[in-house]
Each structure stands twice: as C-alpha cells, then as structure tokens.
Specification:
CATH architecture of the largest domain: Beta Barrel
GO molecular function, one term: transmembrane transporter activity
Organism: Pedobacter antarcticus 4BY
GO biological process, one term: copper ion export
Number of domains: 4
Oligomer: single chain
Number of helices: 7
Order of helices and strands: HEHEEEEEEHHHEEEEEHEEEEEEEEEEH
Shape: elongated
Number of strands: 22
Strand content: 35-45%
Structural class: alpha+beta
Largest sheet: 6 strands, antiparallel, barrel
Pfam families: Beta-barrel_RND_2, BSH_CzcB
CATH class of the largest domain: Mainly Beta
Protein name: Membrane protein
Strand order of the largest sheet: 3-12-15-14-13-16
Radius of gyration: 43 Å
Length: 404
C-alpha cells in the first residue's frame, strides 16, 4: 500500500517539474533574445549599394580651431538719450493730437496742442512788463547822462539802475517761460496772443504709446506720449560670475532673436557693469548691434547671445555627423571590431558590408560647418565615422527597436 502511494505521488510530481523547467527555459531564451536585440539596436550594417543610395559618406574626426563662446541671455534696449517722454510744463486741455502710434517724427515736429487760460495772463504780464520797461530804460539812460555830465546825484542814478536791471531780468524770465511753452516772445510783442501752446518732439524717432485723448485735461509734468529712436538700439546681456573674467570690451557677439524665428544679428561688447544684479546674481554687459540688414528690432525683444572669447584647438566633426535623439547627441562610428578590410566584411553575395555603432557625445562650439564634440568613451585617432547620412542610420536603428 505504501509502495502504491509513493508511485502515485511521483507520477503527480514529475509533470510539475517538467512544466517548471520548460517555463524557465523559455525565460532564459527570451532574456538572451532581448540581450541580442538590445545589442542590435546599437549597431547597424549596410552594404556599399545601400550607403550610396542613401548618401552615407565616411570621414574621420579632425582637430579644428573653433571660436570659444560664452552663452548669455538678455533683452534689446535703447540708451536713455534715445528715448524721450513728451510732457507738459503747464496743465491744460488737449485740443489736438496730430500723430499716431508708430509714426516716424523728426526733432521739433508738432505733435499736439494744449489750451490753457493762464497762458493769456502770462502774455499780458509780459506786455505790461515790456511797456513799463520802456519808461524805466529811458529814465536809466537820463540819469546815466546826468551823472556823466556831473549834474545828477548818485542816489537817483542807483535807484534808476536798480529798477532797470530788475525789470530787465523779469522780462527775460517771462521770455524764457514763453519759449519753454513753445510761444515766440516776438509774436506776443507784435500783438499775436496765443490761447494754447504746442507740444513738439524732443528727438527724432517713432511715436510710442499715446496716453491721452483729445479733450482730456493734463496736469503739469504729465507725459502725453513717448518717442523712441531705435537707430541706437543695443542689448543688455546677463553674464554670470563663472564667465565674467572671460568677457572683455571689443569682443564680437552673435545674437539670435529668440521669438523671431532665431534671426541673427551681430554686435560688439562696449561696456561691463561693476555690480551684480540682485535677482539673477549676474552682471549686465552692454553690446551695440550692427543692424546693417535693417531688421525690425524693438526694445524689449529677448535674445540669446554667443560672445566670442577666442579660439581653441579642439576635436570636431561636420555638423551633419551629429544626430539628436531623446535629448542626447550621437555620432555613428565604423565598428573597429570588424577586422576585415577596416570594418568591412564580405557577404555571401560578395558585396562589402560596413557595421556602424552609435556613440554618445557632448557638443560645444559650432562654426563653419563643424561642431566640437567630446565622446563619452575613448575614440581612436584613426576612427572613421559617418559624416553624412547619420540621420538615416538613427532612423534605421529606431525602426529596428520598434520591431523588437
């Protein structure tokens, strides 16, 4: 009976062991297949006909003298002397605005007119002072002649002289006040009284935002509009402390307009501040812009700048040799493990095959079609790479991984 029970248990346990062994074998095969596929995902082989069809060309890594740059961000701005607020010295009601926002104006051009009832009183005071000054001037000359003839007294002459100088300075002050308001004293003297005064452009440039309307009352010192001269536009860049000692006056700068399809303009460093900004902990660097192409540059535009700080003899490859995938950068190297014919092997059909493997790199300065690279693993001096067609190789590898 005991023998029968042992045989029965053995018959039940053997199938279980066989099933477990099969499942383990399948898992090991799947893992081996995955490892094999993972290796294939990093390599690809093409024959000469395929390489010619897709335009893949081979070359070597070379040493190039590329410009070393410091990257900085900033905004376009204009100097204070090229931006003006059109303000009023005396309050009043705007009776006319003759310009529109965005309109080009020249220095001294009429922009608007302000009506002010107090202006009439100023002109009346001016005429009264001039009429009174006629008598004072005549009396001063009479006392002066009497003194020279020895007939007058010094007391009367001093009194006439004091009155003459006082009224003369008062008239000059009123004349200056009228000129500041844009009114000619000569016209007032001729009887041409003004009930309003004009606003004129202090500089040549473009009309900015107009902050008032016709009929509105303007307090003294209020800005009605602004005029901006973009011909002297420059860039204020923020350079951080680690790069500050590399930046000097006179260095060339290449600007990319961040929100304008990365349009490029050039410039030159003209000034470096001597204090840190509170928020960014960087130093403001000023650069003038050479806008010979006449691009529409507006103060406030954001730019990315590359400051040329010198040249460096560095490892470089053609820019077409570098591809980007998932935030990383790669080149494709002919597999050095393939000994036959420097990485080429004969296939059954007699054609030659080239094996490429993907190598991650870090890039730096780019200039004249070449880009600086720093491979993440050792690369031999005679290593050959795909200088053209690297994107095709990347797409083939990506497609292969999808199928796996």
């Amino acid at each position: 009976m005991k023998h029968l029970i042992k045989v029965t248990l053995l018959l039940l346990f053997v199938p279980f062991l066989l099933l477990q062994s099969c499942q383990q074998g399948k898992g090991e095969n799947a893992e081996a297949s995955h490892e094999e596929h993972g290796h294939e995902e990093e390599e690809i082989a093409l024959n000469e006909a395929q390489m010619k069809a897709v335009g893949i060309k081979l070359g070597t890594v070379s040493m190039k003298n590329l410009h070393t740059v410091v990257k900085a961000n900033g905004q376009l701005a204009v100097p204070p002397q090229n931006r003006a607020n059109v303000s009023v010295l005396s309050g009043g009601i705007i009776s006319n605005i003759s310009v529109l926002e965005g309109e080009q104006v020249r220095k001294g051009q009429f922009l608007a007119s302000i009506e002010n009832q107090d202006l009439l009183k100023i002109q009346q005071d001016y005429l009264s002072a001039k009429n009174s000054f006629s008598y004072t001037s005549a009396e001063y000359e009479r006392q002066k002649q009497l003194r020279q003839a020895g007939a007058g007294t010094g007391k009367f002459f001093q009194s006439a002289e004091a009155a003459y100088l006082s009224e003369k300075s008062g008239i000059a002050a009123i004349e200056n006040q009228l000129r500041q308001l844009g009114i000619s004293p000569g016209e007032v003297s001729a009887g041409k009284m003004k009930h309003g005064f004009p606003l004129r452009s202090p500089i040549s440039g473009t009309i900015g935002k107009i902050t008032a309307n016709t009929g509105s009352f303007i307090q003294p010192g209020t800005s009605v509009m602004e005029v901006v001269d973009n011909s002297k536009i420059h860039c204020d860049l923020i350079v951080f402390e680690k790069d500050l000692m590399k930046v000097k006056n006179g260095q060339e700068v290449n600007f990319q307009l961040t929100n304008q399809d990365d349009q490029q303009v050039t410039g030159r460093i003209t000034g470096i501040n001597k204090s840190f900004e509170d928020e960014s902990k960087g130093v403001t660097v000023h650069a003038v812009i050479d806008n010979q192409a006449g691009k529409n540059l507006i103060p406030g535009m954001y730019v990315t700048a590359l400051i040329n700080i010198g040249q460096e003899h560095t490892t470089a490859v053609p820019q077409d040799a570098v591809v980007r995938s998932a935030g990383r950068e790669y080149i494709f190297v002919v597999d050095n493990h393939q000994k036959e014919d420097q990485g080429k092997r004969e296939t059954k059909a007699g054609s030659k095959e080239v094996h490429f493997r993907k190598l991650e790199v870090k890039t730096g300065t780019a200039e004249l079609g070449f880009i600086q690279i720093s491979p993440l693993e050792t690369l031999s001096e005679d290593a050959r790479i795909a200088t053209k067609g690297a994107f095709y190789l990347l797409s083939k590898i990506t497609g292969g991984s999808d199928s796996h």
